[in-house]
Amino acid sequence: MKEKTNRDKLIIVGGGAAGLLAAKELCNDHAVTVLEARPAIGGRMLAGGAEFVHGRLPLTLDLLKVAGISYTAVAGRFFHVSDGKWQPDADMIEGWDGLLAQMASLKTDTTMTSFLDIHYPGAGYAGFRDEVKSFVAGYDLADPNTVSVQALYREWSHEDEVNFRIAGGYNALIDYLARCCYDADCEIVTGKTVYEVVWGPGEVKVVTTDGSIYEATKLIVTIPLWLLQKGAIHFSPRLPQYEAAAQQIGWGTVIKVILTFKTAFWQKQQEDIGFIFSDEVIPTWWTQAPDEQPVLSGWLGGPSAKEYAGYTDEMLLQTALACLARIFDLEISDLEEHLDNGAIFNWQNDVFTKGAYSYDLPGSAAARQLLNKPVADTLYFAGEALYDGNSPGTVEAALTTGKNVAARIGGSV
C-alpha cells in the first residue's frame, strides 16, 4: 500500500452510494475520512429506499459481480386496475411511442405540462395528458409543471425492460463497500452532521454540530440535493455560483409503504402479479415476484406525496389498506387481520434527505456542469443529482458520480 501523507488527506461528507464508492476508490492511496450524519451508512440505499437495479446498469452490476452478490430479474405481469376492473399486460400508456416521437422532435426544451398543452390540446386528449403527468410524478417524482421534456426523453428512450433485485437488498452492496474501505484503513464516522466548511486552496476545516473539527486538503460533498439547496452546510468563503446552480435542479419526494401479510392473498385475485397501476391515492403497488414472499409495496410519488407530509405513519397505513381494499374488493378489516407488519417511509420527512431523488428542469444541464467542476482543486461535489447520463435518480447515478470524482482527485493529487 502506498504510504499516506497529510497532503493526501481527504474528507467525504455523506456515506451513501456516491460517498462510499469515492472512499473505496481513494482510500488505498489517500487518508480518507467519511462523515455520515445518520447512525448508519448507506443513505438512500437503506431500508425503504432503493430497491431495484433499473436495467443493465454497468457500474452497479460490475460491483455486484466483483462483490459476489447475486441478483435476479424482476418478474410478474403488469395490471391496470380502475373502478374494480383489472386489465392485464396493458401498455403503460396508450400512445406512448407517439409521445416519444413528439418529444424527440423538440428543438427547444420546455416543461411537460407546456409540451402536452401544445402537442395534445383539447378535451379529447385530457385523459392522455393526465396519464402522462401521473407517470412523470410517479416514476420520476417530478412536477410536470417544471420538469424538462428533453431530460425525460433522454431517460425514457433508454429504458431497459429488465429490472433486477439484489439478494439481500442494497444492504449487501453497502456492506461490501464498507469492507473495502475498512480494509484500506478508511475512517468512517457516523452520527456526524456537518454544518460548516471553512476552506482555502488546499486546506479544509469541517465543523460538525457536536463541535468536532476535521481537517484535510480536499473535501467531497455528497449530501442530498435538498440539503445543498437549503444551505445545510455553510461554506466560508461562500460559493454563490454553486448555490445558485443547486437551485436549478428539481427535487422530488415519495412515500413508500411496505406491507407484510400472513399469506399472499393477491394470488387468488390474479396469477403472476408483478405491478399494479391504479387510480387510488397510493396508485402503484408491486409484489416480490418471482419470490413468493407475502409482501406488497406501495408508492406515492411526486407533488401528490407532498399533500401527505403531515400524515402520521398510522394514518398512511390506514390509507394504504383502504387503497388495497378497493383494488382487491376486500374489507379493510380482512386486510388488517392478515397484516403482519407495516412499514412507512415518508421521505420528505426524513431529516437527512427531505425527499427522494432529483429531476431535471430546463436549464439543469448547465447547472450540473458547474457543480461537477472542483473549486480551487479543493472542494468537490458528487451525488445522484450531479449525474449526467441516461439513468437519473438511481443508485447507478450516485455511484457513477462517486467514481468520477475519485478519478478527478486521483489524477490531481
TrEMBL record:
As its record notes, the protein acts as a catalyst of: L-tryptophan + O2 = indole-3-acetamide + CO2 + H2O
Question: Its Gene Ontology molecular function terms?
Answer: tryptophan 2-monooxygenase activity
Highest taxon in the source lineage: Bacteria
**Key word Transmembrane helix present in the record?**
no
Which part of the chain is the Amine oxidase domain? Answer: 113-409
Keyword terms? Auxin biosynthesis
Kindly report, in one word, the top-level EC class recorded for this enzyme.
Answer: oxidoreductase
Keyword Cell membrane found? no
Which pathway is this protein assigned to?
Plant hormone metabolism; auxin biosynthesis
Q: What are its E.C. numbers?
A: 1.13.12.3
Gene Ontology terms: biological process:
auxin biosynthetic process
**PANTHER family for the chain:** FLAVIN MONOAMINE OXIDASE, LYSINE-SPECIFIC HISTONE DEMETHYLASE 2
Similarity comment text for this entry: Belongs to the tryptophan 2-monooxygenase family.
What name does the UniProt record give this protein?
Tryptophan 2-monooxygenase
Taxonomic lineage of the native organism? Bacteria, Pseudomonadati, Bacteroidota, Chitinophagia, Chitinophagales
